[in-house]
Design brief:
The chain contains nine helices and no strands. It is mainly α and about 300 residues long. α4 packs antiparallel against α5 and α6 runs parallel beside α8.
Length: about 300
């Protein structure tokens, strides 16, 4: 979403967090660049539809519609791919958008080829080449669920469902706060979303943490979404300073809680790892002493575990 410029010396400066709202230091989304070209090329057929012979009007308009649909479906598929890649545990997209985009591209080029060349051989060739090049350029959709090593299917499904639920609440908050027409609040909601996603990544790394964090996702984020909807409607009409302060305090409290929850879960994971390492080291030491034999000197102890 486009945002007006705001800087340190702007009348409405951005929050001093070192970056603009919504800025992501990661690579740009796949849904830019090449996919935008797919929206421009089909208009060649729009020009040809109204400048060519009347007999070609139907085929050219069909090619235009099919290629525009292919571009839109492909863009949605790339956005779904980005969301899939960003998670450690994720379910494959239920609808293979990029593959459907390739099929629609092939169909659109087939329709355009029916105008350019008589018969079926050349249009079919155009369609096949277009579909293949589309797959090469954008790749297929994820066809398998993604789960971390050592995580069974049941656990990964629970985590993926919980994360999808949390992402839906965050999306609802982001959409609702736009009604307030306040860039500082939009940035504040973005920071809360980043904190919540850090919790999501922690849960994906160890699904056992889901039970402890279930209330944070299913209750607190839902309540924050509902509060954002009510606040945005009120603030858009009244511009109440007290309502704004109360809402900001709510976001601050929730952000602090989620950060503390994430830190606690990571601390627990670290403790569990230390226990597992200690148990493993004790077993290795017993195995070394056992294999040394009764007539041999005991094996020297393992060096102390480093920090």
């Amino acid at each position: 979403m486009a945002q007006r410029y705001g800087g340190k010396y702007s009348p409405t400066p951005l929050p001093d967090d070192g970056r603009r709202p919504g800025f992501d230091a990661k690579r740009p989304s796949r849904a830019g660049g090449r996919v935008n070209v797919l929206f421009l090329v089909p208009f060649i057929f729009a020009v040809k539809a109204f400048t060519g012979p009347p007999t070609a009007l139907g085929w050219n308009l069909a090619a235009l519609a099919l290629l525009i649909a292919a571009a839109w479906v492909t863009r949605e598929g790339l956005l779904a791919q980005d969301a899939f890649d960003a998670r450690k545990v994720a379910r494959r997209p239920a609808f293979p958008r990029k593959i459907v985009g390739a099929v629609l591209t092939g169909a659109g080029l087939f329709a355009g080829g029916m105008v350019a060349a008589p018969g079926l051989a050349t249009p079919v060739l155009f369609g096949v080449i277009g579909a293949v090049l589309h797959i090469i350029a954008f790749g297929p959709d994820p066809l398998r669920d993604k789960a971390g090593e050592g995580i069974d299917r049941f656990q990964s499904d629970r985590v993926a469902k919980a994360v999808d639920e949390g992402e839906a609440y965050l999306a609802g908050m982001s959409d609702a706060i736009l009604r307030a027409n306040d860039r500082a609040l939009e940035a504040r909601v973005d920071r809360l979303a980043a904190t919540a996603r850090a919790l999501f990544r922690t849960i994906e790394g160890d699904p056992r943490d889901l039970t402890a964090a279930r209330k944070d996702i299913g209750v607190f984020l839902m309540a924050a979404r509902d509060a954002t909807v009510k606040f945005s409607g009120l603030y858009a009409q009244t511009r109440s300073a007290s309502a704004r302060a109360d809402y900001e305090q709510l976001l601050t409290d929730l952000d602090t809680h989620l950060r503390n929850r994430t830190g606690a879960l990571r601390s627990d994971d670290h403790i569990d790892l230390d226990v597992e390492i200690k148990v493993l080291r004790d077993r290795l030491q017993l195995e070394r002493n056992r294999t040394a034999g009764p007539d041999l000197a005991p094996a020297p102890p393992l060096p102390p575990q480093g920090d």
